[in-house]
Amino acid sequence: MNRTKLTPLDAAFVQLESPGVPMHVAGLMIFEPPAKGGADFVRTLVSDWRKETRIAAPWNQKLESPSRWQLAPCLKTCQDPDLEYHLRHLVLPKPGGQVELGQLVARLHSQPMDMRKLLWECYVIEGLAENRFAIYMKFHHSIVDGISASVLLMKGLSDSAKDRKTSPFWIQTAPEKPFQPASFKMPSVPAMLGAANNVLKLFGRSDSLTTLRSAPRTPLNGPIGAQRRFATQNFDMTRLKATAKTAGVSLNDVVLCLVGGTLRKYLQGITALPTESLTAAVPMSLRAEGDLSPGNSVGMIYSIIGTNVADPVLRLKKISQATNVAKQQVLGLEPEMRVPYSIASFAPAIARMLTGVSGKKKPMFNAVVSNVPGGRDDKYLRGARLLHCYPANIVFPGMATSFTCYSHAGTLNVGITACRDTVPSMQKLALGMEEALCELEHGLGLEAHANPRSLDVVEAAL
User: Fold this and answer.
1) How far are the Cα atoms of 39, 148, 154 from residue 380, in angstroms, in the given order?
2) What is the separation, in whole angstroms, between the first and last Cα of the chain?
3) Which of 53, 105, 148, 280 could crosslink 369 through cysteines, CB 3.0-4.6 Å?
């Protein structure tokens, strides 16, 4: 039996697991069936997958002990998966729209995983409009971060529409860590002092640096319930890139501006908009070049999202300034100290969750905004084209809303996860992102191209 000890960051997601705050992430993939797929296409797919007995790492790994109360969780290998449990086939009443699919995914995402079993679940969902179908794939956060989860999903798809023999996801072997010659050297004293000084800055107040004391109190940052809501939005990448280029900022800055715009409008609607800007924790990959292996390798930077600024162009400018300062906090360090600094910047939030004080004190940040890079080319599952891949993230006490983006084939897909009790009008956030982009384009003198898909959520938002 192979035995693998989890890293401290991976282990933290096991230790944080609880019935009310499950620590899993997921991807919702929407597929367009092949022209000659037939009425039984999805049923045949599920039947074939259930006959498959092969399984590769990390799909074949589960915890040695399912308890969260352990200092050093370990994984063990299981070669006899219960696919009756891990692979489910669900059918929505036809024609299932975005609202119905979102409600189903919200319920699936609310359910904690059985920590005694393999750390993934796959739900194949048919009954969508235009004969489309979906796959909702759930992973425990202890075995994947955003990049490694997207790699596992994309490895299970084909580059060719003519490939009608695509094997199940769990047959595909995950990439291993690239070999790196041992070159460890003890950091110099000035390098360690510089990193320690930058960590200390995060606990203070600054006019330019967004710190862990910058976030105001909002209704989004108290205790949360066990149930989730889930909404989706998507944008043409050419629109976002044109906006970023015109403004002279990064695409990530534009995404933060859209989040700031929709949260500003949402909080105004419930008369709860604070005078200070909300802040966001922005995950930053710490992976070495070419490292696509399973597990977590992320740190955090923090930025304002301009909710206290009415002008969308000025909001974007202030966000860009804040993210540049935050990045310099990391890039200004010696290379060997960037990973320790980034981990230290995330540690206070983990410590709050472990001690149970999250949601009871002033928040360290108000939301999480993550952007996972994807591929530019189309992907297929037995000839069915992947249209969208929406990420579903975790929320926890003190942080009831999470925005996660994934780019695929020229589209930025946004998954918004929230506490059901804290955010009762979830679709307003999705619709508000489109409105924020149109306002930003107008302010920059660009021709606004409203996304027709946003009209789908109007009825649910009212």
Assistant:
1) 18, 19, 9
2) 55
3) 280
Q: Annotated active-site positions, please?
A: 141
Strands 228-236 and 298-304: unpaired
pLDDT tens-digit profile of 293-336? 777 667 789 999 999 999 999 999 999 999 999 988 888 888 77
In one letter, which amino acid is 223?
P
| Domains contained in the chain, CATH given | 3-171 (3.30.559.10), 189-461 (3.30.559.30)
Cα separation, 170 vs 193, in Å, equals 45
Which single residue is written with the structure tokens 């699936």?
A: 108
Residues 59-109: pLDDT tens digits? 999 999 988 888 889 999 998 888 889 999 999 987 888 888 989 999 999
User: Strand 367-372 to strand 279-285: parallel, antiparallel, or no bridges (unpaired)?
Assistant: parallel
Place of tokens 């047959």: 171
Measuring CA to CA, which residue among 54, 52, 75 is closest to residue 1? 75
How far is Cα 91 from Cα 109, in angstroms, rounded to an integer?
Answer: 17
Tokens of 169: 């996801």
Return the half-sphere exposure (C-beta side, CA atoms, 13 A cut-off) of residue 415.
31
Which pair of structure tokens corresponds to residue 77?
């290998």
Tell me how far apart the alpha carbons of residues 119 and 277 are, in angstroms, rounded to a whole number: 38
Which tokens in the block code for residue 202?
């995060």
Sign of the torsion formed by the C-alpha atoms of 323, 328, 330 and 331? positive
pLDDT at 296: 67
- How do beta strands 120-128 and 87-96 pair? parallel
Q: How far apart are CA 149 and CA 11, in angstroms?
A: 17
Number of alpha carbons in the 13 Å side-chain half-sphere of residue 169: 25
Evaluate if residue 151 carries a pLDDT over 80.
yes
Task: Write down the pTM of the prediction.
Answer: 0.91
The vertex-288 CA angle with 16 and 179, nearest 5°, equals: 105
